[in-house]
Every structure is written in C-alpha cells, then in structure tokens.
Specification:
heterodimer, A: 152 residues, alpha+beta, six-stranded antiparallel β-sheet, four-stranded antiparallel β-sheet, B: mainly alpha
Amino acid sequence: MDDGEKIDRRSFIEKAGFYSFWLTLAASVAGVVKFLMPDVFDEPSTSFRLGKPEEFTKDGGTKLEDKNLMIFKDTEGLYVISAICTHLGCIVGETPAGFACPCHGSRFDKQGIVAGGPAPRNLPWFKIYLSPEGYLMVDTAATVTIGEKFKI
Amino acid sequence: MSTSDKKGAASVFIENFKRIPFSFRDAFSRHDIPPESEREKAAAVFSNFFLHLHPTRVSSHVIKPTYTLGLGLMCAFLFLILGVTGVVLMIYYIPHVDGAYASVKNIRYAVTGGKFVINLHRWSAHGMVLAVLLHMMRVFYTGSYKSPREFNWMIGVVLLALTLALSFTGYLLPYDQLAYWAMTIGANIAGSLTELTDAIGVTKFFDPGKLQKQLIIGGNTIGEPSLIRFYFLHVILLPIVISIFIGVHLWRITKDGGLSKPLDSKQFTESANPDDEKGSNPEKTYGLMSLIRGNTPQVGNYSDDTVPTWPNVLIAEGAVFIFCLAAMCLLSLFFDAPLKELANPAVPENPAKAPWYFLGLQELVSYSAFVGGILVPSITVLGLMLIPFLDRELNDVGVWFSGSKGISVVKRSAVYGFFSLVALIAFTIKFGWLRSWFPGVPQIVIIAINPATVIIGLFALWYFKILKETGSMRLASIAAFTLFIIGFAVLTYVGTFLRGPNWDFFWLQSQWPGIHFD
C-alpha cells in the first residue's frame, strides 16, 4: 500500500463492519455444514473376518452378499473384489465375460478391469491379512493392486 | 320499565337472533356478497385475503383457454392436492428403515381410503412434473419470459428444479427397491465430482464429491441417517422453500403487469373512458390495486378489452381446479401407485429404472456420471435462466411461436434434433463408444468426449446456425429450447422403452431375457 494513503475513522469503521458481516456469515455457514456432518458415522467396521484359512480349499468364487464383495480362490491364492460398481454404486452381477452393472450398463472383465460403459475406475481389490487369532481378515478401506493375491 | 319496553327488548333479541347468519356473513366478508357494480367487484378482489393476489381486472386476451391452457393453475392446484394428501400421509408414515416400508403397506392395506390417498399423492406428483414442464413450454413459446418478466421466468426455473427435488425425495420414502437404489444413485451422482477431480488428479487434496455425498446421506452408505435426511427435505425444508417461491411467482405476475399479452391488444391509456362509477371516490388508486405499473393515480384508466376478475377469472380457476381434482381422482381409482419389494442392499433390480421424468437423465448418466448427472443439468438450468437476458427482443410477446417464422424454426429444429439424436444413440448402441474401442482411454477423455457432450455440441452448433441465418435472438432461443424439449423426449423414450437388463438395448420389453416382467 502507498505510504501516503490515509483512511479516515468513519470509512475504517464502515469497512470493518462490512467485512465482519461477511466473515460472520461465512463462519455461520461453515458451522451449519459442520452440524450436518456428524463427527462419527454410525457404520460397521471396514475390516471383518472372512473365516479360517482351511475353509478356503476349493478353487472358485463366492459372493458375500451383506458386505457386497466377491471372494475368489485359484491356484495362486485368495483375492477379494468389490461388487459395488464404481460408476454410481449399484451391485454388479456375474456374466460369462466378467461383471455387468444392472443400472447403467458398466462392464468389467473377470479381474474387475473396466471393459465398457460409464464406470470411471476398475473394481477395487481389497486387502486380505491374517489376524493374530488365525482368521483371514479383509479390510474394505485398504486396496491392493489388481492381481495381488493372498497366498494361503 | 313498562311491559311494552320488555316486549320490545325481547323482539330485538329475536330479530337479531334471526339475523345472525346475515350479520355473520357481513362480518366474515370485507366486501359485498355478491358484488354488483364494477367497483364492488374490484373491491371484492383486493379486499379479500384469498383473492388479493389477483388484479381487479384482466385483459380478456389472457382468459382465453387457448392462450394459457390453464397450465400454471394446474401446477398450483396439483401442489395444493399434494400438500393436503401429504400431510394426511404423515399421520401413518414412519421415517425409519425398519418401519417405513411396513407403514406404507399399512396405509395401502389397513387404512380406509389409504390406498386412494397414496395414489392421489403419487399421481399428482407425476402430474405436477408434467404440468410444470408444459407450463414452461407455454411461457417460452408465447414469449412471456421477456422484459419485465425475466425475473419471474428465473423463479419458474427454480420452481422446476424444486418440483423435481420434491418428487425425487418423495419416492425415496417408502424404502422399497426403487427408493434404496435411487438413494444410492442420487448420492453417488452428488459424489461424481470425484470423477472429475480424479481425472485431473486432485482428489487427494480436495474431494468435494465425497463431502457432498456425505452431507446428503449422512454417511458413506445408505441407512437411517439418509432416510431421515430425505424425509426432512421432503416434508419440511423443500415444501417451505417451494411455497415461498410459488408465492413470489404468483405475486410477480400481477406486479409485472399481469399475464403477457400481445402489444396490439389495447393497453391502459390515459385517454381511455372512465368506468361506470364516474365521479365516485375510489378507495384506492388503480396503481395501488396493481392494475398498472407505477403509482400514479390513473383512476379508471383501463381500456374496454378488460373484464372484471370477479367472476370471470374465478370461474376459470374453479374449472381448472375441478378438472385437476377429477383427473387425479379418476387416475387414483383405476391405477395404483407402484410399490416395489422391500429394499435389498445386496441386489438391485435389473434394470433399476427411475420414474419416467428421470429416465432421460439416467440415459445420459449411462455415458458418464459427472457429465450426465451434474454437467448437463447445470448447463440446462443455466441456459434456461439466461434465455430472457440474451433475448431482449420485445416484439411478438404473447403470440404463440412469435408467428410463422417461429413455427418454421420449431419444425426445422425438431426434425434436426430428432434425427441427429436418434443417429447418435443408434451409433452408440451399434458400435459402442471410446472405451469399447480403446480400453485404456483415460477418464478425462471420456468426460470431454461422450454422447452427452456430443449432443451439447450438436445443439450449440444448430443454435448458432439459426442465429446467423435469422439474426434474431428470439428465433435462436426458439431453436435451442425446441432442441431441449426434443432431447428430453427422445432420451426419455430411449430410457423408458428401449433399455432392458444391464441397460442393454431392446426394441420391446417382451424381448428381455429372464422373467423381468412388471
């Protein structure tokens, strides 16, 4: 600012009032938004048990319906793919070519990689680990790169 | 006191007692019933709480049924029916994920007249969406958005959005399969900004999509917090907001000079003949009675082509109301509102279809969530709002299609819109889109180039072609608006009738694989 520029008392108070009004309004809006967003979501834990490793002996796939994910086992190991379409959250179904979404027609191959339709991302593969008690656990908050299977 | 005095007191009592109905009527009404003279008729309108939104006289042009088609009134009356039936439904409805579905079934099967009230509510909601769309078309094609009515047109666009929001939040409440998956898709459309932030690689630092989604559904997945939020929106917040906007919308009609009419119809002039009560002292100037703009006391300066609101407009309104109520009652007697199975978070319906008025959007969303769900609706709303500010031509207000030139533009635009859209959709169905040809194509390219953005491009091209050809913003606006209507109709048809399981293309529902019959 120019050194010589002076501001008189009246316009200083006017400006201070003007800007405090908008500042207070912005703070109130932020407060309302924060009120609408609870500090904690009452939702189940993102990691849960799949079962004991010895339960997964046969190769093939199963769908865990209440968690909306699919568990597959082949000779290389175990892997878990999300059944929630990355487009708008419908549940994909299995087709001969892989997976298809009933809502807007997204297509994925058997690895969950986008093969057509509007889905912007591949179906995520979730992290599998062994709990200290010896249970296979899956964490839907952590993803692994596609193709990374868990050796039993 | 003498006997005769007592007798007089008793007769006064009897006399007054007998007169109670008439005295009550006079106390109830602030004007003469029925109003006889022109001035009494005017007073009846502006001194009555329920009528005072009306002007005291209207141009005979605007009460011709072929001009307004009664569509704005239909919107208002259907909203009234929705308010009344909605409040009644609140007596039994339980906004809880474990009780909502059962309570809706309860209303249908265990409450006398419950099914009828639910049907009335649902069909009036569909009717209101249709009426609002048709009303917008009427206002547009008669050029009624032009100055000084630009602001009221904008309020109308807001009312269209609010009507759609109310109908959307409404069909979420039964918590059936339609509701659950509509909530999921709606929340993820709000969250689809992430598609854009992902594509430009800033989601890690700034994720407004996720914030929006969590704000709307109160969590990361659909559950009780989501249902209660949509319930709050549907029964409290949105009804209050839309009521305020409807109030302003109606008030502005009068304040902006009444319903639009052609310029050549007789205007209020100072030289016009005074009314039948020459010399009497009016209680208010006609300016204050909203007959004309401004506040100059131009007493009685209306031309001969106006008619008093009482009874002409009131009779017309009553007729439209009876028509609406009768049509909705008939529909409700013969057709039941749909109710799907209880919400199942593991299995969406296949196909999972929204009500008809969202199926065009669902088709667009099947190209790209962000483009179809956020970009195109935003462009549409913005474009509609800008119409009266871009088109400042004041001729041909109140004339359907602005005359023969306009009709020809409507026809040409409809043909262009229909064939270009059908060709584009047929191409997409037959050959797929970018991802079918180049599986590795980045999402940002899909966002930029998909059937929805191509449609926007084709429509913009036509708009500028008509503008260049005719040099008229009004005709260019007619072209753009016609394309919007045709686009809405074609996409809605495709989404409704030509899409089957997994959103695949089928000519007929009978060709769908499996047993997906309704």
